Amino acid sequence: MKEIINVEVKSHKVDLSNCKTDLLAIGLFADTKGLDKPTQELNSKLKGAIDQLIKLGDFKGKDGTSALIYGNEQIGAKRVLLVGLGEKQKATLDTVRKAAANTTNKAVEMKIKTVSLALHRAFGGRFDLTVMGRAMTEGVYFGSYRYDEFVTESKNERLDTLSVELIDTDSTKTRKLNQGLSNGATIGKTQSYARTLANRPGNVINPATLAAEASKLARGLKGLSCTVFDEKQLTAKGMGGVLAVGSGSKNPPRFIILKYQAGSKAARKLPVIGLVGKAITFDSGGISIKRAANMDQMKLDKSGGIAVLGTMKAAAELKLPINVYGIIPAAENMPSGTSYRPGDIITTFSGKTVEVLDTDAEGRMVLCDGLAYAVKQKCDIIIDIGTLTGACKVALGKHMAGLMGNDEKLIKQIQGAAQDSGEKVWHMPSGEEYLAEMKSNIADLRNLAYVTKYGDACGGAAFLGQFVGDAKWAHLDIAGVDIFEKATKFMSEGSSGFGVRLLTTFLMNLTGKKG
Fold first, then answer.
1. Does pLDDT of 304 surpass 90?
2. What number is the average pLDDT over the span 152-172?
3. Is residue 129 part of a domain?
């Protein structure tokens, strides 16, 4: 199989005009008049080409736009890319992250080998340079990512490597950029890793191969260990939710436990975190089978579990001083003579019983066992993540994940991590009124509201909240944000890797590691 593009990022002190590169990217806001001194010098050596583009209206600095200028013998760059940053007053860290993604996305399309980014200069001192270095580097990996490992023939063969540098004329500033660059590269590479795993189809990734990948990952990282329960162990432990969902497939379920132990005094002062990710390696809907249209996208129903896997990788590589469990219940939901059925009553790991109304409401069936296991491990804070409901996509579209939970402080911490990471969330309710609709007359709970078809994202969260005990808990419904159905100026189509940046940033913020 073909490897994904190998991207390397470094910092470099150099004048804009003297920077020898295939592509020099400069950020410009839509509502800022005039050019700073280094950009004006570059413009002069380009014989006023930048000014001319702006005066003609061919470049207005709008978010997501860009304009290309070819270099000459007076500058070192072969090409100069003007990248739109939108309105300055609305700029966030995600503005520079998206601008970097826009640049490297274009670079891959153009088969460019070297890129130099001076995007941060337009922001002045608005954001800390260390944090900006991290955000730009994350954007570099995000925009340059392509999933084509099974493509054997191509009329437009891409390059295998991309070399990127963050540049400034001031060595003090490049040092600060470099501090953030290191963390950004770790997170960016991990998100690309997660996107690749999520993009792989069901005939390549099943519960057993996903468990093998997790075990392989743990062997290579200090402080990270992996335990896997097979179907016999799942039966012995009474993990009825995972077993039920996986009962119809020839690929039996697995329960993956990654444990990261920091081994430091600082970690003992922080809460133990449990991350629980839904990993349905393919979701046909089971007996309650889905329609054929877009069913191929159900290979991405493992995205929550992959996000947890990626976050555990990042936490270990960043050597974060915090103890974390990554719990990934994995199953393939298929119809057969051995499938679980509507009407079945399942006894879950917690001992609670669940009446099955719809076998396509399978995510909550595996997550409830994962949540109960996190409680048993005495996790102080538990966050679950998964493509749980189509209702969340109806509510929020493809721009934000649904966020529910039982602790306001935790909700605010995740909202803060969302702002820092650029992976957006929206707080939604999941209180007693939604739980009432999940009650069953013949079991403790039902896996789908019987009295109404509305509000399933909130009802699903209310269901999950019954399995967390006294722990502080949050639920992330990432249905709708797990996939880019079409390529844009910022990214290629396929898995978004949503959750890796968000959860890693959440952990970093808890430890005080901002850059």
1. yes
2. 89
3. yes
Q: Is 55 an annotated catalytic residue? A: no
Give the whole-angstrom CA distance, residue 26 versus residue 28. Answer: 7
The span from the CA of 462 to the CA of 354, in Å, is: 14
Percentage of the chain beyond pLDDT 90 is 92
Res 446: pLDDT: 97
Tokens of 57: 């209206």
Q: Beta partners for 181?
A: none
* 280 assigned to some structural domain: yes
Q: Which domain holds residue 17?
A: 6-197
pTM: 0.97
In this structure, the answer to whether residues 216 and 189 fall within a common structural domain is no
Whether residue 181 is found in the same domain as residue 324: no
Residues 308, 259 within the same domain: yes
Same-domain pairing of 132 and 212: no
Q: How far apart are CA 487 and CA 103, in angstroms?
A: 14
For residue 91, the domain's CATH number is 3.40.220.10
Domain assignment present for residue 311? The answer is yes
Catalytic residue among 2, 259, 290, 439: 290
The predicted-structure confidence for 88-102, as pLDDT tens digits, reads as follows: 999 999 999 999 999
Given its phi and psi angles, is residue 201 left (phi above 0), alpha (psi -120 to 50 degrees) or beta?
A: beta
In the chain, how many domains are there?
Answer: 2
Q: Is 284 within 8 Å of 360 (Cβ atoms)?
A: no
Question: Using an 8 Å Cβ cutoff, are 187 and 97 in contact?
Answer: no
Which tokens in the block code for residue 450?
A: 């019987």
User: Residue 329: which residues within 8 A CB-CB, separation 6 or more?
Assistant: 239, 241, 242, 253, 255, 256, 276, 278, 279, 305, 366, 367, 369, 370
The catalytic position among 278, 364, 446, 501 is 364
Active site residue 364: yes
Task: Look at residue 116 and tell me if it is in a domain.
Answer: yes
